[in-house]
Amino acid sequence: MNLLPFMTHILGLHDPHAVEHSRNVNGLASGLARKLGLPSRLVEQIEFSAAVHDIGKMAINDFIVNKPGRFTEAEYLMVQQHSQLGANMIERLDLDPNIAAIVLQHHENFDGTGYPQRLSSDQISIGARIIRITDTYDALMTHRGYRPARSHQKAVSTMEAEAQHFDPEILDVFLRMRPNRNH
Q1: Per-residue b/e over 49-88, b at no fewer than 16 CB within 10 Å?
Q2: pLDDT in tens, 52-62
Q3: What CA–CA distance (Å, rounded) separates 4 from 6?
Q4: For the residues of 137-182, what is the DSSP string, one character each?
C-alpha cells in the first residue's frame, strides 16, 4: 500500500492549503536534491519527507492551524510542536528512519536557532536542510492569513536577508536554479 496519497489526503482534510504546499515543497526539494547530485535513494526519502513534512499539524487544533492573522505566543509554541508530532507519527510506520529525522528537523536553522532541537550545521540532515529552504520559499510565495504572498524577488530577498538560517551551499544552488513552484 502506498501511504503517501493517503497521508496527504488526511492532512488536506485538516488544513486545506497543506496539499498544495506539500506538493510545491516536494517538487522544489526533489529538483534541488537532484541538482545537488544526491543518490536516488536519498532523493526518494527527501521527496516523501517533503510531501509529509507538516503531517504533525494534524495533531494541532484546527482553529490554530487555520487561524487568520498572527498566532499568539502560546499558539506559536503549539504550532512549533508539529515537527516533533510529525516525526512521532512517521516513526510508527514501517519507513526508513531517515524520513522521521527529516520531518523532525525541517525547522532547524543552520545557525542553531531553529526548533525543536536547536541543531546546527551538519547536525541537521541534508534532507531537512533542503526542505528548510524549499519550505521557506513556498511559504513566502503563498498568501497567509497575516500577510499577502510575496513575489519571487521579494521571497529571494527575504531569504538572502535571513541567510544564516540556511545551509549556504544549498541555498546558493537553490537560488541559481531560479525556483519555480509550478513544476
Answers
A1: bbbbbbbbbbbbeeeebeeeeeeeeebeebbbbbbbbbbb
A2: 999 999 899 88
A3: 5
A4: HHHHTS-BTTBPPPPHHHHHHHHHHTGGGS-HHHHHHHHHT---S-
Looking at the chain, how many residues does it have? Answer: 183
- Note whether 109 and 120 are within 8 A (CB): yes
**What are the boundaries of each domain within the chain?**
3-176
Cis, bond preceding 116 (omega within 30 deg of 0): yes
Which three-class secondary structure state does DSSP give residue 167? coil
* Class of CATH domain 3-176: mainly alpha
Per the structure block, which three cell numbers stand in for 161? 536577508
0.85 cut: is pTM over it?
A: yes
Q: Cα–Cα distance between 8 and 170 in angstroms, integer?
A: 26
